[in-house]
Structure formats: C-alpha cells, structure tokens
C-alpha cells in the first residue's frame, strides 16, 4: 500500500513515498488489461479508416452528382493538408493539456472532437465545410496520439509494454484494410447513389467512435499521473480495485511489489521546463526521437504517395482496383507489429528497433533495384512493398513507444505530441512535395530515386537507434526516466532554479544524487 509523509515545503504540495508504479508493473496479464487495450487502442483503426477512405473515394466524390462541388485535387491536396495540419496542431494543443489535466479527461474529449467532426463531414454541402471539418477531424486524432499512448504505457505492466504499444499503434493498418475495402463498396454506384456512399463512410466512422467512447468510460485515470498531481488517494483506490479484480480472476494472491518511489507532488510543469528537459537533459534521446520519426515518415511517403500512380502508370492497373493492392499492403503493415512485438520485450529495444529500420531500408533498396531492371509486375511489386512494410511498420510503431517511455512522466504526453507532430509534418508536407512529383512523372529513374531517398533515411535512423536506443525492455517507466517530481531530482532542479534566479536557495533538506538511466 502507498504511504504518504506530510513534508511541508513551499510550492506545489507534499512529498510522498509510494509503491504504486511497482504494483502496476508486477500485475499479471488479465481481462482488465484487455479492456484497456480495446478501450484505448481501437481508435487507431479509425485513423487508418479515415486516411484510406478519403484517398480512395476522391475520384467518386469529385464526380458530378456527388452532392459536393469539389475536385479530386482539392481532396487529395487541400483537404489532406488540412487533415495533417489539424493532426499536428491537435497533438501539440491536446498534448500539453494531457500532461496538465490528466489522461482520461483528454482521451474522452479528443475522441468526442473526432466523433463530432467526422459526423459533420458526412453532411458537407460545400467545399469550405468539408475543409473545416477535415481539419477538426485531424485535430481530434492528433490529440488522441498523445493522450492514448501516455495512458497505455502508464497502465500496462513493464514486461508487456513493448508488444502492447506496438500492436495498438499497428492497428492503424487494420483500419486501412477496412478503409480500402469500404471504398470499393462506396465507389460502386450500383449499390449506393453517388451522393450517398461517401457520406455513409464518414457516418460509419462516427458510429464506431461512439461505441469506443462508451467502452472508454470504464478506463481509469492513470494512477501515475494522479500520484504526481497530489491525488494519491484516488490512485490508491484505483490500483487497489484493479488488484482485487485480478486476484478474483486469478484465484490467488498477487506477488508482493518490489521498490518504492519518493516524489514531491506538483500541480503543473511549465512549458519551458518540458522543453529544457527534452532537449537539454536528454539530448541523445531527443536525437533518437527525431531520427526515428523522420526515417519512418520518409520511407512511408516514398511508397504511399506514389502507390496509385506507380500501379496505374507502369502496370496499367485500373484506378478503381488499386484498393485491393493497398489492402494487401495494409495487412503486411499490421502483421509486422503483431508478430514482432513480443521480441521488443524479449530480445530488446535496441536490437529490434535498429534491425527493423535497417531491414526495411535495405529491402526497399532491393525493391528499387528490381524495379529499375524491370523485373517486377504489379503483384510482385506489391509483395516487395509488403515485405518492406512488415518490418517498417514494427519500426514506426516502436518510434511512438520510444518517445513515450524515454522521457519523464510529467513531459510524456507533450514529448509524444512533439515528435508525432514532427513526423506528421515531415510526411504531410515534405513527403507530398518530394515524392508526388517524382512518382508522377512516369519515369522509372524518378521512382527509383524516390525509393532510394526513403530507404536511405530509414537506414540512417536504424544506425542512430543502434547507437542511442534505450534498453527499456522490462523496466519501469520511472527507472527508464525518473519523474521530475522524484526527490532524487530535487538537487538538480533547485540548482537550476537558483542559477536562473542568480541566487542559492535552501530549506529543502538533503537531496539524493542526480537521476540515472540516461544514455
């Protein structure tokens, strides 16, 4: 049980000693954990559904009789850019609030924003309306990344954290499979009128979001977040309830937890302190996060932005049949994190992150060589892409896992949001500008160059991971990166504040050595 010792000190609150993180990490896998996975993880399916459907129905939506006077270029250009901009802005906006007001508050609000925006997209009557609610849909989804990844990593036991995080982030591609197949139905005017099919696809997304919202009500606030923000009694009640539920399910008492943490509770962490922590205290980890997100963003854009153009221009695949090929690629993307995820917890983060990045990059180099020689058909090229993305998807999912576990808890959501926004901006801005031009020329050499650029950046990120990746497998989040509120960090914090003020302050008593565990 947690213990709290009243320790009067100026500022934010009490100093307490707690074993709640250790109690959460020693839990065996249970039905309760599956509830967390379903309640929080299924939203990525919606993201995959959204992105894929919009791209695939662009042709039908721009035709006369669709009920919306919009061009295909506006859908894949302006609307797509606004969705990306909304996702970046939402990640940063909601990420800051997630660290400040809690995981549950924000993952309920962001899903509600997504639900409302998607439903209102379905009733679009003019391009401006469509553009506004595509931005707001992205705004909600971007916030989900920060709130959900924070909550999942803080609720899932340490020995399962890697595989669960990868599986959940990889479920985006399950939505992409559904979006590809759903778009085939939506494009079929024999089944649905041209002005109705595309509306129903957005309405379906809203219905699925409502179901997830109802399930998500039962997901608790992160006890780790509650502890730091002075709500340790609530944290104790939540963890005790989870323990009783699992003991009842297992039919035996749980093992005793090992380890305690002493923290000085605080209500808020200033933005400048978050930035200083990420870039000044953990520069190598920040470099790692940058590299992983940029590498996967460019590899994916090297393939996906030219996907339809390559199949239609080089292999004469009808435009309304590209959805079948994309569904196959999406399955490969989903299988990667699903089948390789456990290895991130057993073989280890450094080996698995670097190897998935390097393997996917090398395989894409091989694909470029075969494509340049004219040795591929539409089917074999798709098979090559599937192999590349099997490893790339596991690597890309591990990028989200990495930035969510290698920075202190008080900065977790903002760290996820920052690196997510960086990768999304690189993919949504630089990607289209670079790769769409290369793959649309119809020249083999230009497409080969696109593949080679993506492969090079992915391999470079793999080399950075080999050197800098943190061995976080099986370790508690507090061990990987001690909270800023941990008493062990007070000496460094006090010294930094004193330097900023130009004076030395006392009154906090003896302090422990600086935090450990950084690369």
From TrEMBL:
Q: Which SUPFAM superfamilies match?
A: MFS general substrate transporter
| Gene3D superfamilies associated with the record | MFS general substrate transporter like domains
| A cellular component term, taken from the record's GO annotations | plasma membrane
Which coarse location class describes where this protein primarily resides?
membrane
Membrane-spanning ranges: 32-55, 75-94, 106-125, 131-152, 164-184, 196-215, 286-311, 323-344, 351-371, 377-401, 413-436, 448-470
Q: How does it sit in the membrane?
A: Multi-pass membrane protein
Q: Where in the cell is it found?
A: Cell membrane
Here the segments flagged for biased composition (Low complexity) are: 490-501
Query: What protein name does the entry list?
Result: Sugar transport protein
Enumerate the spans annotated as Major facilitator superfamily (MFS) profile domain. 36-473
Region of interest (Disordered), residue spans: 490-519
PANTHER family noted in UniProt: SYNAPTIC VESICLE GLYCOPROTEIN 2
In its UniProt record, a GO molecular function of this protein is: transmembrane transporter activity
Q: List the CDD domains.
A: MFS_SV2_like
Q: Tell me, what's a Pfam family for it?
A: Sugar_tr
Q: Which domain of life is it from?
A: Bacteria
- Parts forming coiled coils: none
Q: Does the keyword Transport apply?
A: yes
Q: Which UniProt keywords apply?
A: Membrane, Sugar transport, Transmembrane, Transmembrane helix, Transport
């Amino acid at each position: 049980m947690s213990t709290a010792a009243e320790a009067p000190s100026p500022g934010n609150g009490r100093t307490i000693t707690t074993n709640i993180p250790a109690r959460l990490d020693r839990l065996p896998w249970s039905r309760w954990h599956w509830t967390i996975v379903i309640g929080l993880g299924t939203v990525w399916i919606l993201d995959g559904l959204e992105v894929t459907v919009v791209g695939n129905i662009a042709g039908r939506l721009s035709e006369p009789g669709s009920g919306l006077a919009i061009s295909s270029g506006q859908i894949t250009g302006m609307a797509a850019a606004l969705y990306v901009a909304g996702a970046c802005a939402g990640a940063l906006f909601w990420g800051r609030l997630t660290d400040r007001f809690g995981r549950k508050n924000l993952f309920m609000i962001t899903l509600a924003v997504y639900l409302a925006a998607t439903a209102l997209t379905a009733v679009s009557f003019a391009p401006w309306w469509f553009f506004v609610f595509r931005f707001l849909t992205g705004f909600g989804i971007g916030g989900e990344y920060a709130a959900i990844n924070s909550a999942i990593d803080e609720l899932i036991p340490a020995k399962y954290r890697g595989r669960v995080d990868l599986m959940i982030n990889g479920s985006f591609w399950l939505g992409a499979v559904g979006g590809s197949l759903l778009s085939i139905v939506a494009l079929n005017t024999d089944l649905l009128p041209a002005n109705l099919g595309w509306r129903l696809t957005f309405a379906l997304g809203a219905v699925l979001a409502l179901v997830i919202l109802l399930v998500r009500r039962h997901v608790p606030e992160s006890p780790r977040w509650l502890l730091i923000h002075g709500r340790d009694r609530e944290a104790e009640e939540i963890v005790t309830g989870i323990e009783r539920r699992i003991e009842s399910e297992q039919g035996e008492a749980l093992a005793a937890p090992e380890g305690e943490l002493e923290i000085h509770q605080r209500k808020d962490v200033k933005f400048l302190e978050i930035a200083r922590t990420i870039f000044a205290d953990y520069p190598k980890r920040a470099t790692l996060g940058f590299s992983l997100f940029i590498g996967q963003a460019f590899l994916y854009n090297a393939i996906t932005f030219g996907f339809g153009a390559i199949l239609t221009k080089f292999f004469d695949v009808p435009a309304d049949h590209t959805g079948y090929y994309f569904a196959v690629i999406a399955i490969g993307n989903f299988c990667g994190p699903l089948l390789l995820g456990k290895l991130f917890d057993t073989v280890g983060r450094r080996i698995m992150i670097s190897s998935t990045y390097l393997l996917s990059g090398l395989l894409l180099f091989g694909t470029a060589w075969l494509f340049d020689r004219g040795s591929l058909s539409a089917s074999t090229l798709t098979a090559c892409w599937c192999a590349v993305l099997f490893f790339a998807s596991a690597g890309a999912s591990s990028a989200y896992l990495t930035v969510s576990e290698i920075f202190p808890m008080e900065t977790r959501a903002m760290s996820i949001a920052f690196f997510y926004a960086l990768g999304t901006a690189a993919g949504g801005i630089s990607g289209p500008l670079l790769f769409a031009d290369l793959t649309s020329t119809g020249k083999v050499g230009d497409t080969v160059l696109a593949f080679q650029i993506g492969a090079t950046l992915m391999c470079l990120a793999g080399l950075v991971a080999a050197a800098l990746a943190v061995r976080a497998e099986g370790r508690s989040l507090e061990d990987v990166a001690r909270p800023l509120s941990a008493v062990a960090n007070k000496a460094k914090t006090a010294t930094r504040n004193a330097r900023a003020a130009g004076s030395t302050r006392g009154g906090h008593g003896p302090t422990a050595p600086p935090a450990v565990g950084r690369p």
